[in-house]
Amino acid sequence: MAPIQASQQTSTPLSPVELSYLHTSLTLTPPIRPDSRSPTQFRPLIAESDILPSTNGSARMIWGDGGECIVGVKAEAEKNSAAPGGSKDWIEINVEVSGQRDDDAFLGMTVAESLLVPGSGVLERLVLGERFHWKVFVDILLLTPPLSHPATLLTLTTYLALRNTFLPKSVSEVAEDPVFDDDWGNALPLYPTDKIPPPITLLVVSVGENIFFDPTREELAVGDIILAVSICGKKVVGVRTLEGGNGGVGRAVIKRVIKESCQVAEEVFGSLNSVEEN
Amino acid sequence: MTDRRRINGPSEGTAPPVFLTSSTRKAITKRSPTTLRKIFLKTSLTPPATGSAFLELPTPQNSTTPTLKLTASVYGPRPLPPSTTFSPNARLTAELKFSPFSTPGRRRGYVRDGVERDLSAQLSIALAKSVDVGKYPKSGIDVFVSVLDCEGGLGDLDSDAGKGRDSGKGGGVEVGLMSVLAGAISCASAAIADAGIECFDLVAGGVAGLVLEKPKWRKGKKADAGQEEEMDVAEDGDSKPSGKKKSRRTLTLVLDPSPTDGYFIVAAAMVAYMAARDELTLIWTKGSIDPAGDGDGDDGVEEVERVIDGAITAATGVRLVINEAVKERLLLGLKEMGLVKGNAVVASGDADDGDTVMV
C-alpha cells in the first residue's frame, strides 16, 4: 500500500512508487532502512559543550545531514514578583530557526513542557534567598535546520548545554540581597550529577510492526505515526503526536513506542554524558 | 515648585490593587474518579457552515462556575484556490481560537498566540487522520473551533492560571489545555459528520490523569502538602538507588479531571480515539510517567498503560455522546424527508449523510 503524503512538511521528492518501496522495506522483519542503520541507531553527529565564554552554559551539535544547533544558557538574578506566571516564568525558552518565521509553536512548547515538569526539582535550585531567584534564559539557535524534524537535535543540544550550566555560588544570607562568590571554580551546577538530568525528546516513527529512532525525512514520510517522546531520567515526561501518517494506530503500538523510547534514551543519556567528559 | 498646570499622579507611585481570588471557583470533588462529566452536544447550530456542533460541559453547582463551552464549524469540502499546487487529497486545516472572554481574569488577544497555534496543529492532526481525505482530491476542508469558555484557566505558560497551589487548585500538571483540546476534537468530529464528509470513523477526545492521594490530615494546608509531594516525586526519579524506606507513591486514575477539581495531578494523557476501529490518532501526555513495569501502580499495572487506557475509556464514553448527537440530527433530517415515522428508521442506507454514522 502506498502511503498517502499528508502534508507539505513531510513531503519528499519521492514518487508514490518509491514511497511504497520504502514502506515495504521498513515493514520487513528485520527492517531495512535506506541508510542501513539498525532501528535504534542514530546518525553520526558531532557534539561539543562549553563553547561560548559569555554564557553560563552552552553546547553545539552538528548532524550528518547538515543540521547545526547552538544553545546558550544565561542566568540573571531577579527579584521575586507577584507576576501571574509564578515560578514557571523562571525559565524562558527561545527557539530561533534561521531562515524561518518563528511561528512553529511545537518546538518551544515541547522543550518548555518537559523542562518545567513538576517534580524535576530544577525550580527549587533557582531560589536565591527569600526575595530573589535566578531567571534562566535558554536560547536555542538552529543555524541550519536539518532535513528531518529538528526536535531531537534541538533537545539533545539543550541537554548538553544545561548539563554544563553553572550558576555563581550565593554567599549571602536568605534575607539579604544576593551576593555571589567571586571564584568561578565554586560555581554550582544547575543540574548536579546526582539529581534528575534535563529532559531529552526523541523522535520515533512507527511503520507497521517496526519502530525507528532518529528517522530521516523519507522515513517520516512513510510512517504510520510520528511521536515525540520526552524523557527525563527514567520517566516519560511528555508524548506528542506530529503530523504525518494516514489513519490511526492501535494502542499497543503507542505503548510499545513509549517503552522502547525509554530504553533507547538510557543509551542516549550515556553517550551524551561521555561528551562532557571529553 | 510644583507643576500646577497639569494633574500629576502621586509622586511616590502607586501599588496596583491586589484582589483576592474568588472563592466561587473552589469546587468540591463530588464526582467519583471514574465518572465523566455530562456533555451537551448538538449539531447544525451554525446555518452558514456546512456542518457545525456545539459542546458544553454542564456544571451542576451554579451558573457562575466556569465550564467548557465551544463551537465547531466545518466548511467544505470546497475547491482549493487556483494558486495552490495540485493535491490528490483533501487538505484539512483546523483553527482553534479562544474568545477574548474565555479565560477568567486576563483577557486574551485576538492575535493567535503560541498556545492556540499548537492546539490548532494538534487538532488538525487528530481530525485529518479520521477523514477519508483520499475521497476529496483538490479540495480543502476548513474546521474552525472557537472556545467560548474554558473552565478555570488553561495552565499554559503565559496565562494567569499558573498561580498554582494558592489559588485553590491542586497543583501538579495542568489539564486545562488538554480538556479544551479533547472537547475541541469531539466537537469538531461531530461537526465533520454533520457536514456529511466521509470519515473512517468518528474521533473522540478523552483525558485521564494520575492523581496523587492526599493524606487526609494534611488537607488543611494544601500548599505545604503540594510542596512535599513534589519532593517525593523528585526523589522517585533519582537515578541512584536511594534509601530503603522509600514510600511508594500511590496514584489513582481519574477520568476526565477538571482543572477546578483541585487534584494534584502527577501525569495526564489526552488521546483522540476512534472507537469503532480501536485506533488512536493523537496522543499527548504531560507529567512524569514511570514506564518501568515493576508494579508501581496499585494493581501492578504500569503507569503508561493505566493513563493511556484511562484516557481511552474516557474517549469511549464521549464517543457515545457524539453517536447520539449525530444520530439525532440524522433522524431529524430523515423525518423532514418523510422517511421516518416516530423514532423508527425506515430507510437509512440511501440517506445523504447516512454513511458517516457508525454505531
TrEMBL record, chain A:
Homology family: Belongs to the RNase PH family.
GO cellular component: cytoplasmic exosome (RNase complex); nuclear exosome (RNase complex); nucleolus
SUPFAM superfamilies: Ribonuclease PH domain 2-like, Ribosomal protein S5 domain 2-like
Source organism: Choiromyces venosus 120613-1
Keywords: Cytoplasm, Exosome
Domain of life according to the entry: Eukaryota
Record lineage: Eukaryota, Fungi, Dikarya, Ascomycota, Pezizomycotina
Gene3D superfamilies from the UniProt entry: GHMP Kinase, N-terminal domain (3.30.230.70)
Name of the protein in its database record: Ribosomal RNA-processing protein 42
Cited PANTHER family: EXOSOME COMPLEX COMPONENT RRP42, EXOSOME COMPLEX EXONUCLEASE RIBOSOMAL RNA PROCESSING PROTEIN
GO-annotated molecular function: mRNA 3'-UTR AU-rich region binding
Automatic annotation (TrEMBL), chain B:
GO MF annotation list: RNA binding
Region (Disordered): 219-248
Annotated InterPro entries: ExoRNase_PH_dom1 (IPR001247), PNPase/RNase_PH_dom_sf (IPR027408), Ribosomal_Su5_D2-typ_SF (IPR020568), RNase_PH (IPR050080)
Limits of the Exoribonuclease phosphorolytic domain: 36-198
Keyword rRNA processing: yes
Keywords: Cytoplasm, Exosome, Nucleus, RNA-binding, rRNA processing
One Pfam short name: RNase_PH
Subcellular location field: Cytoplasm; Nucleus
GO cellular component, as recorded: cytoplasmic exosome (RNase complex); nuclear exosome (RNase complex); nucleolus
Ranges annotated as biased composition (Acidic residues): 226-236
UniProt keyword rRNA processing present: yes
GO biological process, alphabetically ordered: nuclear mRNA surveillance; poly(A)-dependent snoRNA 3'-end processing; rRNA catabolic process; rRNA processing; U4 snRNA 3'-end processing
Gene3D superfamilies assigned to the protein according to its UniProt record, in alphabetical order: GHMP Kinase, N-terminal domain
Protein family membership: Belongs to the RNase PH family.
Protein name as catalogued: Exoribonuclease phosphorolytic domain-containing protein
Species this protein is from: Choiromyces venosus 120613-1
